[in-house]
Amino acid sequence: MKNRTLFRKTAALLITLSALIVLPVQVVHAEDQPYDTYNYDYRENIVLTPAAYVPEGSVTGQSLGTTAFREPQDLCVAPDGLIYVADTQNNRIVVVSKDMKSTVRIIEEFERNGSTDHFNQPYGVCVSENEELYVADSANKRIVVLTPEGDFVRTIEKPQSEVLEENFDFVPIKVTVDYADRAYVISKNAFEGILVFESDGSFTGYFGTIDVKITLWEKFWRKIATKEERSKQQLYIPTEFTGMDVDTGGFIYATNIDSEGKQAVRRLNPQGKDVIQKGENENVGGDVRIYLNGDYSGPSEITDVVYRGKGMYSLLDRKRGRIFTYDKEGNLLYIFGGIGTQEGTFTTPAAIETADDQILVLDAYYGAILKFAKTEYGSLIDQAVGLRYDGDETQAIDIWKRVLILDENNELANTGIGKAYLTAGENKTAMKYLKLGMNRKYYSVAWKRYRNEILTKNMNLFMTGILVLVVAGIVYKKFFKKKLQEKKKGGAKG
């Protein structure tokens, strides 16, 4: 029996490793998952974990009572709970009911200035807090703003500005809107950053440009290289953004393809400065880099992001079909998903959203919205992280302990308990859990506080001891001095 159990555990680990290196996992658990779920320890080793989310079915155009979706590229959950799908190759926006069982309306055309207008390959969709529908009408090279019912409001066309190159081609593929009705637009092949438009449609400039660091040699090479040679070097071109979301404070979460696999998302403040936190391992890039050949080698390719609330956000990896969820401090909370043909896996994941406790992923190839339900494990982690975000760390102790019952080696849970005890001033207990959580930073803080605590508690004893030593020193000195003088007198007499 022991050998059999060992074999099963070893096999599970090998399957997970192969999923990361070569092929997606095709193992079915008791929860009917088509893959194993995992995380990384502080050494970045793979550790198997319970599932935070499990597949809960899918939604297609046919199941909604309309024709099949054709390569849909984006979806958005509106403030009222309705779901808007950019059905790209059908040139339409499909509005889905909150329960995802029926179609509320289909927007294929709209009246504009007395004539009928149509979409042409709408790639991006967003509904603002003021309940206006923004559509990145890509092939028409514009942003169309409508009422939720589909009535025309305005368009945002190619901007005219000195900061834009003369041959700039405005091809919007993603759009999001903040609380002030500022529109943030990702345009295809626009490497300078995200385009920002005020509520009246006026262009204000680029936002959140990703700087590319080059060496002195690369700078020298640029000066001596021919124009043709320079044009072929994509290394020097800033990274293009791939997806966006906005939080309640107006901060923009923007994803990009990172060749190093270290930072695939930025949290941009109103000035466009990246203020994201990266956690202990300085990595918010999805999977760790794998230096092997094959379709699934190398770093994750993050294509979209959704802000989850309480500082949490989830990234969608189009290469391996993974979903990575982080907290505000950049800690990786859990991972699930995969590439495949079974229910709950993807072929071409394009966009991610949340609806209540569900995570929704739009698969362009399947033409479907895949639904994932939160498990007890995922719910406990989210609750504990939320309490820490709200400043109620001590209230999270019992929740983290329940996480440890489900996942006894969860370093995040041990760290969470340790931080909570640290906040409560129980430094010795905090040290115990922070050590288990392999959190050197906070363990050092706890140790220093515990040391000061011991010194403070025993100050009277220390002071008494010091006083005794001082008195003893004085007595000894006087005694020694007296004996020395007597010895000298005795010598003189002799």
General description of the model:
The chain is α+β, with helices and mostly antiparallel strands and 494 residues long. It has 2 domains: 17-373, TolB, C-terminal domain (Neuraminidase, 6 Propeller), CATH 2.120.10; 396-457, no CATH class. The chain has helices at 2-21, 216-224, 227-231, 376-389, 397-406, 411-423, 427-436, 440-457, 459-493; strands at 37-40, 46-49, 53-60, 74-77, 83-87, 92-96, 103-107, 109-112, 115-118, 122-127, 133-137, 142-146, 152-156, 172-177, 183-187, 194-197, 203-207, 241-246, 252-256, 265-268, 302-309, 312-317, 322-326, 332-337, 349-355, 358-363, 368-374.
Features:
4-stranded antiparallel β-sheet, 494 residues, 27 strands, 2 domains, elongated
